[in-house]
Amino acid sequence: MKPFIHKNFLLGNKTGKKLYHKYSENQPIVDFHCHLSPAMIAGDRQFANLTQAWMEGDHYKWRAMRTNGIHEKFCTGNATDIEKFKKWAETVPATAGNPLYHWTHLELTRYFNITELLSPSTATMIYEKASSLLDTKEFSTRSIIRKMKVDVVCTTDDPTDNLEHHLKLKDSFEIKVLPTFRPDNIIKTEDPEKFKLYIQKLKLASGNEIRNFDDLLEALDKRHKFFHEMGGRLSDHGLDHFYFATFTSSEIDRIFKNLLKGKIISSEETEKYKTAVLLELCRLNHKRGWAQQFHVGAMRNNNSRMFRQMGADTGWDSIGNAQDVLKISKFLNELDNNDQLTKTILYDLNPSDNEMMITMAGNFNDGLSPAKVQYGAAWWFLDQKCAMEKHLKDIAALGLLRRFIGMVTDSRSFLSYPRHEYFRRIVCNYVGEEVEKGHIPDEEELLKPIIEGISYRNAKEYFGF
Predict the structure, then answer these.
(1) Among 174, 267, 319, 368, which one has the highest count of C-beta atoms within 10 angstroms of its own C-beta?
(2) Using CA atoms, how far apart are residues 392 and 396, in angstroms rounded to an integer?
(3) Do strands 298-299 and 180-181 pair parallel, antiparallel, or not at all (unpaired)?
(4) Domain 47-139, CATH number (from 3.40.50.300, 1.10.2020.10, 3.40.980.10, 3.20.20.70)
(5) What's the first-to-final CA gap in the chain, in angstroms?
(6) Radius of gyration of the chain from its Cα atoms, rounded to whole angstroms
(7) Cα 147 from Cα 282, distance rounded (Å)
């Protein structure tokens, strides 16, 4: 019987098979957006077992387990590692049709050469085999990254981070591990006490007094420069939606001083403050020649009871409303109008925004670099076959598929790199179908740069790594 993960998995046409195996399969990975721990890479962590490597921090798995009727103690609670794994194995058969089923078996095959399907009957065997391998040096965090042919890893880091682990990695690891500037906390004004505590952290990290808005910008500039010196070339912004409101400098200074006093500001003041800060951060990105990423469209922490108990990023988020197109337009136009718009990648969790986002990006491409402003990969809940296929069709129809910079891992798990393979197979199958329908010519000089570009080269060139 042919194993589930086989040579031509997801490749349903002859041309797609040729494209994948000839131009995509062996390309390296540019992991330009992930949530891997730089401390774990610097320490070259060895996982004690498959549960620790696979399930720590993985809210995708936790959501599926909860939906399958598994008690929380087996997700984030105090059950033993083997008990947690067996409950995951009990859930896996129910994920058929979900990307988790594909990811699970790709990872078992690629890392551990395990081709059996994970289920309650195979759980113990799989756990023991994978855990015994993880106990060897060939499966430390750095070895895993090497094994998957990763060129560059861009972690996600707060401006107040001292980047000590990145400094260590500069001289001890041949693969680039670069910081990404993620300043979300500076616009989280809803809890005045938390905001004041964050300003204190920023003050300590920058060495600057922060008494007014100009002081805040000076502190952020100082931290941005530090990230640049450490090799950082990207910022990332996780927003519910884009913000835009007109304001004066005196208004923003007054609003910020009220925040420093612990006052609650109005919704109108919040919009103005967030607009002002984000515009200034984008100007820093432009000044230092960085690329910037905007992840929008998530509705986070919907279950307030569980959020109080467990905090953010534990599996209580969903797809949010469609974006306000006027605010996106005005925000990008404000930067472009002053020649301060750097390379920009837009990600949206709501697929109904695909066409709008792709055409919006096209408004701000000025010919200075290929796809300077572009729509990023299908992300989070859209990181699955049907959403990726829609995403590819929309980019091909309304943008330039040839210039798409491709996949992001967007994961906290070191075993998630086969998601790039998953994506590449879907790309090659889609392009192969279009060729065989007669919609794209079957010409190597046309197809090779499309597939190699999306798989690896476009990202490598776009970021200048």
Answers:
(1) 319
(2) 6
(3) unpaired
(4) 1.10.2020.10
(5) 43
(6) 23
(7) 36
Nearest to 416 by CA among 10, 58, 15: 58
pTM of the model: 0.96
Domain at 14-46+149-463, CATH class = alpha beta
Contact criterion met (CB below 8 Å) for 327 and 244: yes
Confidence at residue 310, expressed as pLDDT on a 0 to 100 scale? 92
Residue range 208-233, pLDDT digits in tens: 999 999 999 999 999 999 999 999 99
Give me the residue spans of the domains in the chain. Answer: 14-46+149-463, 47-139
| Phi, psi torsion values for 87, nearest 5 degrees | -70, -35
Let me know how long the chain is. Answer: 465
With a CB cutoff of 8 Å and minimum separation 6, the contacts of 395 are: 358, 375, 401, 404
When pLDDT is cut at 50, 70 and 90, the band that residue 2 belongs to is confident
Note whether 329 and 357 are within 8 A (CB).
Answer: no
Q: How far is CA 377 from the centre of its chain?
A: 9
What percentage of the chain exceeds 90 in pLDDT? Answer: 98
Cβ neighbours for 385, distance < 8 A, ≥ 6 positions apart: 10, 99, 102, 426
Identical fold for domains 14-46+149-463 and 47-139, yes or no, is no
The token pair that represents 149 in the structure block:
């042919």
Average pLDDT, the chain: 97
